[in-house]
Design brief:
single chain, globular, 41% helix, 13 helices, Rossmann fold, 2 domains, two-stranded antiparallel sheet, Arc Repressor Mutant, subunit A, alpha/beta
């Protein structure tokens, strides 16, 4: 779906996100693929470490899914780990999600998230960046990107952030703009949460559920859901049964009499001892790269397949 037209918005344009204008150093222009959701809806960032644990990834997906189901727009940075989980959780909740890149939006970085980027656009979300097409990802640009993630949102949720995580920078930038910071804590002494706990000591709100977040933001979830229904999404374009219950789908795949393309991929992954790339899956299943790319994306949304830095594997 990345053939979608790239649009440029200047800070003086009416479509430019109003909350982003309020930060200390807003980008003079942003480049966008896809559709920006209505600004009357609450946009909320979910960030954390790239090297997330299984528990952190599952929590990020659960929180993003629950908030998306209530009409929140989920914003993150398309990085591996917590960002990827947040985007996938939002899609699983039939929600809208935005990815902010640290490079030109004509290229997806990391490349492993190409399929996820396509899904974000396909289901009505957007990919944006302040950098012109052709701009490569550099370390300092990720820090610059973080201010946009924070600046777009009414609040930032931190899930699993070590001491030197970029998520900490995002949270502090959000705080500087007067936005709320919510942090899910981890076990005492766990280095994966050292940055998270530092934020709590500095005044961020410790939360244990999305109810804590909703209470602090004073949102009427009924009104939020009603406003979300005004987003122009043609659900008839979604793949059939894309949001089927995971348990039902797994039982469906395990039916030996089932002759579905997804089952071919499911069976190959179940037999593999290590993650497989898209090319390897296509080779083993004799399917086209396009078919594999489509089905893998749907299985990720279902929560059946996990995307790793070296390929795809079944969720345990």
């Amino acid at each position: 779906m990345l053939y979608m037209e790239i649009r440029e918005l200047k800070i003086s344009d009416n479509e430019y996100p109003p909350l982003l204008k309020e930060i200390q150093n807003p980008p003079e222009r942003i480049f966008i693929r896809g559709n920006l959701p209505r600004f009357s809806l609450p946009w909320i960032a979910i960030v954390g470490t790239r090297k997330a644990t299984h528990d952190g990834i599952e929590l990020a997906k659960k929180v993003a899914k629950a908030l998306a189901e209530k009409g929140f727009i989920i914003v993150s940075g398309l990085a591996m780990g917590i960002d990827t989980a947040a985007h996938n959780g939002a899609l699983a909740g039939k929600g809208i999600t935005l990815a902010v890149l640290a490079n030109g939006i004509d290229t997806i970085y990391p490349a492993q998230n190409q399929n996820l980027a396509n899904k974000i656009l396909e289901y009505g979300g957007a990919i944006l960046s302040e950098y012109e097409p052709g701009t490569s990802a550099m370390p300092y640009r990720f820090l610059e990107r973080n201010r946009i993630v924070a600046g777009l949102c009414v609040a930032t949720i931190v899930i699993e952030a070590p001491k030197k995580s970029g998520a900490i920078v995002t949270a502090r930038l959000a705080a500087e703009s007067g936005r709320e910071i919510f942090v899910f804590p981890g076990l005492a002494g766990n280095p994966q949460y050292a940055g998270s706990h530092a934020l709590i000591r500095d005044g961020a709100r410790l939360v244990n559920s999305i109810d804590d977040i909703l209470e602090d933001l004073s949102f009427n979830t009924t009104n939020v859901m009603q406003r979300s229904e005004t987003i122009n999404i043609n659900e008839s374009k979604l793949p059939l049964n894309i949001f089927a219950e995971e348990k039902k789908l797994k039982n469906h795949f395990q039916n030996e009499n089932l002759s579905m393309i997804p089952k071919k991929i499911y069976d190959i992954l179940s037999k593999s001892q290590e993650p497989l790339t898209l090319d390897k899956i296509a080779e083993y299943t004799k399917l086209s790269a396009q078919e594999v790319n489509q089905i893998i994306g749907e299985l990720i949304i279902y929560g059946i397949v996990l995307e790793t830095p070296i390929g795809y594997k079944l969720k345990n």
